[in-house]
Write a structure and sequence with these properties.
The chain is mostly helical. It has helices spanning 3-25, 38-42, 55-74, 83-110, 115-132, and strands spanning 48-49, 52-53. A two-stranded antiparallel ribbon has the order 1-2. The longest helix has 28 residues, at 83-110.
């Protein structure tokens, strides 16, 4: 596992999640490079789960990954074979599975794409791979 990968990916994921959250909270139009309507995706009913904006648990997840990566950078053996490691693997697996669900929703239900959501999904997948490989 490479702590710098975890740190870099968590920063990317956090920034994307924060941008989505900020745009929704303050009613700002999202800028989409590929020309799709990101607002339609993130402001759809699928943008919340159990009444909570999806970006909020996303930001918390990326902060946890960042803290874990930073701690590993300081001491590689700090969390070796520790319950914290297994918790993060389970959380990352959940994040990837939820991302797959939301990607399927984009493709087959909304038929619109949000590049920020795809970046976040990719970051989650790469974090999981960095944790387990």
């Amino acid at each position: 596992m490479k702590p710098l990968y975890l740190i870099a990916l968590s920063i990317i994921g956090f920034l994307v999640s924060f941008y989505i959250f900020y745009s929704k909270k303050y009613g700002r139009q999202m800028y989409c490079v590929i020309g799709q309507d990101c607002d339609t995706v993130v402001k759809s009913k699928y943008g919340k789960t159990f009444g909570v904006e999806n970006a909020i648990p996303g930001m918390i997840y990326y902060i946890l990954i960042f803290a874990y990566g930073a701690a590993l950078l300081i001491n590689r053996n700090l969390f070796k074979e520790n319950i914290i490691y297994y918790f993060l693997v389970i959380a990352s697996t959940g994040s990837v599975l939820f991302s797959v669900y939301l990607t399927v929703v984009q493709a087959f239900v909304l038929k619109k794409w949000c590049e920020y959501c795809i970046i976040s999904s990719t970051a989650s997948l790469l974090i999981l791979l960095a944790l387990v490989l």
